[in-house]
């Protein structure tokens, strides 16, 4: 009889522990457009999820949470994060949405870079350079810095705004076909897509604007545990760095560790 009682008690404790783990586990649901190599739609990129998605999945699942990304246009992801409909966004500058909750350290570094066709003589050397641009390609709700926004406000007829799915590929096709004169994008994202589309040497960089920008996995201010999640990311990335797993993840995308100044 005593043996049966002990068995029942042990079973009850295991059941309680299991329920406690379930109760403390959260479903982390993030939203993003395709912004490879930071975050990639695997249906487009041969199963690759992007290095930010890879590290977030490891960190959150190690903490007992589930992790899912819903792919959607960036503007929609931004709106959903601000409304608390998703947990957050992987791959975002602080300037994109300073109202979100950001980790104390970045998860990447990029810089806004102009790209043109190989035969184009145009390079960006300050705002005066825009006088010879007929059409500049940008993506809706992306952060490009004050200089670019002033140009957009002054010359809206010279701006080609793309939104929706796969805007990087569509922008590069427009640039390749001469439908826009120049395109601006994060250098990591642009180069990844140029290489993937085999446009090396055909589409070339033509100057940068502003300073380097930190890239983050950011969280909705309307999600209860947003600050806890941001701490998990900061601590988790450092743990992956020390173990060598971060290098392994970054190597798969041809990227160096931003903390070491590698780009």
Short structural description:
The chain is of the alpha/beta class and 263 residues long.
State the helix count: 8
Question: Major sheet: size, sense and barrel closure?
Answer: 5 strands, mixed
Give the second-level CATH assignment, the architecture of the largest domain: 3-Layer(aba) Sandwich
Helix content: 25-40%
Q: What overall form do the CA principal axes indicate?
A: globular
Spatial order of the strands in the main sheet?
7-6-8-5-9
Provide structural commentary.
This protein is of the alpha/beta class and 263 residues long. The chain folds into 2 domains: 27-108 and 215-260, D-Maltodextrin-Binding Protein, domain 2 (3-Layer(aba) Sandwich); 112-208, D-Maltodextrin-Binding Protein, domain 2, CATH 3.40.190. Helix content is 38%, strand content 20%. The protein has helices at residues 2-24, 51-62, 74-83, 146-154, 167-176, 187-196, 226-243, 245-251; strands spanning 27-32, 66-71, 88-93, 109-110, 112-117, 136-139, 159-162, 182-186, 203-208, 213-219. Mean pLDDT is 88; it is low at 1-23.
What are the defining features of this structure?
single chain; 263 residues; D-Maltodextrin-Binding Protein, domain 2; 2 domains; globular
List the helices and strands and how they pair.
Elements (H helix, E strand, L loop, with lengths): L1 H23 L2 E6 L18 H12 L3 E6 L2 H10 L4 E6 L15 E2 L1 E6 L18 E4 L6 H9 L4 E4 L4 H10 L5 E5 H10 L6 E6 L4 E7 L6 H18 L1 H7 L12
Parallel strand pairs: 1-2, 6-7, 6-8
Antiparallel strand pairs: 3-10, 4-10, 5-8, 5-9
Helix pairs in contact: 2-7
């Amino acid at each position: 009889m005593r043996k049966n009682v002990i068995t029942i008690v042990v079973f009850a404790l295991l059941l309680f522990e299991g329920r406690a783990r379930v109760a403390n586990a959260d479903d982390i649901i993030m939203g993003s457009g395709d912004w490879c190599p930071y975050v990639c739609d695997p249906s487009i990129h041969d199963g690759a999820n992007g290095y930010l998605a890879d590290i977030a999945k490891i960190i959150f699942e190690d903490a007992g949470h589930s992790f899912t990304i819903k792919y959607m246009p960036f503007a929609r992801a931004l709106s959903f994060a601000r409304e608390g409909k998703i947990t957050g966004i992987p791959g975002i500058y602080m300037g994109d949405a300073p109202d979100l909750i950001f980790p104390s350290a970045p998860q990447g570094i990029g810089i806004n870079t102009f790209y043109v066709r190989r035969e184009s003589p145009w390079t960006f050397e300050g705002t005066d350079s825009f006088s010879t641009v007929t059409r500049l390609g940008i993506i809706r709700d992306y952060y490009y810095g004050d200089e670019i926004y002033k140009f957009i406000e002054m010359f809206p007829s010279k701006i080609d705004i793309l939104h929706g799915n796969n805007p990087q590929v569509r922008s590069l096709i427009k640039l390749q076909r001469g439908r826009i004169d120049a395109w601006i994008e994060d250098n990591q994202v642009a180069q990844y897509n140029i290489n993937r589309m085999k446009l090396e040497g055909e589409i070339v960089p033509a100057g940068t604007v502003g300073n380097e920008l930190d890239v983050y996995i950011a969280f909705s201010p309307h999600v209860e545990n947003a600050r806890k999640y941001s701490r998990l990311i900061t601590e988790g990335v450092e743990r992956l760095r020390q173990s060598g797993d971060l290098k392994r993840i970054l190597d798969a995308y041809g990227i160096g560790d931003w903390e070491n100044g590698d780009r």
